[in-house]
Amino acid sequence: MTEFKTDDSKAPSYTSIDAVEVENVEKKEQKHLVPLLDHELQKPQAKEIIRTLANALNDIADDTKCTKCTVENISTLLTGHVRDLRVAKRSGTWSKEDKRILKAEIKGLLKPVKKDVKSLWKAN
């Protein structure tokens, strides 16, 4: 790891993250493991939300930005997006089959994350 020269009077403004070994990397190379979710994330509104979240996360790491304000903005953004998704779900924008498939895709993506988080909490 590269060592950085920092002023000892102030903590560095970066966070060191250890390398993570990824199992089954070839799975990521397969195209469209989650086609409906991919399609939803390619919509302009979803792309804009992702960009805004990325900028907000960078603001949290920035020493000059207000962390509380940034977290409140992220919360407002996510709450609004979830509200829009619920309206779309109830209004019939998605078919029953699309809802079922999307739910299965999201569960499939989050299952390994949930497993890793649980093992992390149990390890401590």
Characteristic terms for this protein:
124 residues; mainly alpha; disordered N terminus
Walk me through the structure.
This protein is an all-alpha fold. It has a domain at 35-116. The two termini are 25 Å apart. It has helices spanning 26-29, 35-41, 44-61, 67-91, 96-123. Helix 3 (44-61) packs antiparallel against helix 4 (67-91). It is built from 5 helices and no strands. Helix content is 66%, strand content 0%. The radius of gyration is 19 Å and the shape is globular.
How many separate helices? Answer: 5
- Provide the helix percentage: 55-70%
Overall average pLDDT: 77
| Largest sheet data | none
* SSE order, one letter for each helix or strand: HHHHH
Termini distance? 25 Å
Number of strands: 0
Category from helices, strands and their pairing: mainly alpha
The poorly predicted ranges are 1-17
- Determine the strand fraction and express it as a percent band: under 5%
Outline: globular
Please state the CA-atom Rg, rounded to the nearest Å. 19 Å
How do you describe this structure in short?
The chain has 124 residues and is mainly alpha-helical. 66% of the residues lie in helices and 0% in strands.
Write the layout of secondary structure elements.
Elements: H1 26-29, H2 35-41, H3 44-61, H4 67-91, H5 96-123
Helix pairs in contact: 3-4
